[in-house]
Amino acid sequence: MVAAAFAIMCLIFGTTFLAIKIGVEAGLPPFLSAGLRFVAAGALMFAWMWMKGRVKLSLLWRKEMLLTGMGLTFGTFATLYWAEQYVSSGVGAILSATGPLMIMIMQTALLRQKTSLRIVAGYLVGFGGVVLVVLPGISFGGGALWLLGCIAVLVGELCYSAGALYSKKVINQFSDSDPVAINAVQMMYGGVLLLGLSAVTEPWKMSISTLDWQPAILSLLYLTVIGSMVGHSLFYWIMSRTNPLFPATWLYISPPIAVVLGAVLYNEHVSWMTWTGVVLIVSGLLAMNDKVISALRAGIQKVQFKARVG
Predict the structure, then answer these.
(1) What is the pTM for the complete model shown?
(2) What are the sequence ranges of the domains in the chain?
(3) Exposed e or buried b for every residue in 231-258, given b needs 16+ CB within 10 A?
(4) Which of 46, 79, 202, 287 is the most exposed place for a label (fewest CB within 10 A)?
(5) Which residues contact 297 (CB under 8 A, 6 or more apart)?
(6) Over its length of 310 residues, how does the chain's per-residue pLDDT go in tens digits?
């Protein structure tokens, strides 16, 4: 059961990048579509948790939820949605996988954690992977907007990293609230900020008149229900049955899924340099964090044990 849930979660998170691309190219304003997605998903998840008695309404008014939402949702997805107007979904997924790399850099630089030679080697290998992913677009005339899109995704991952580090403190501070409920509230705050950004930067009337409604609505529904609600629910369900790090290993599995889907279903160009970049980024992340390897092994062993006894 856990193995099937993990496979489904990885597939879901691997497909969201293509779903974003489809919605944006169908004419959905990127900030508007992102805002609607997270406000709707967050509100529905919070309502569900509240009806189950696992969260108090007072959580909605805490400034910590706003600050978490600014990093984890607003900063991360404002940049990603904007970038996918100019870069492929596969490149967006690969560069998004640098989130753990950014976290480790921030922990080293800001929290003064000790840095071993293995971690430095992981930094360099991961950075080499980013260069190989970005280089083909520069070499073959990707243009300034393509390069800005790549930079935007990386900036978004910096926002994600800051939000992730801060959210650890928030989860400990609000230990009486379910982490799913905390995630729901921060998504709502991030979504509201995205809608505010859309209101001042995107011409809604013009966008509606040129919208390709069917793919736009399907993209929005898929990202809201499957990407945000089902995907994140599976994440926390798997965590409760394995360990905190095991479900996070989706970051090492979903980028290849996203690249393949973009190439097969959307005819996105994938060069050998892109594939090499994927391998280097994942290898660098694994080299930097042996806890991830241990968590992956422990999670797999626990899944196998449950399969034998269940």
Answers:
(1) 0.83
(2) 2-309
(3) bbbbbebbbebbbebbbbbbbbbbbbbb
(4) 202
(5) none
(6) 777 888 898 899 889 999 999 999 998 999 999 999 999 999 999 999 999 888 889 899 999 999 999 998 999 999 999 999 998 888 888 888 777 777 777 777 776 666 677 767 777 787 787 777 766 655 555 678 888 999 999 999 899 888 888 887 888 888 888 888 888 999 999 999 999 999 999 876 656 667 888 999 999 999 999 999 998 888 877 766 765 556 666 777 777 888 888 888 888 877 778 788 878 877 876 776 555 555 445 554 554 444 443 4
CA 161 – CA 157 distance, rounded (Å): 6
Question: 56: which DSSP letter?
Answer: -
Assign 3-state DSSP to the chain and report helix, strand, coil percentages, each to 5: 85, 0, 15
Q: Distance between CA atoms of 203 and 144, rounded to whole angstroms?
A: 23
Please tell me the distance from the alpha carbon of residue 299 to that of residue 29, in angstroms, as a whole number.
Answer: 40
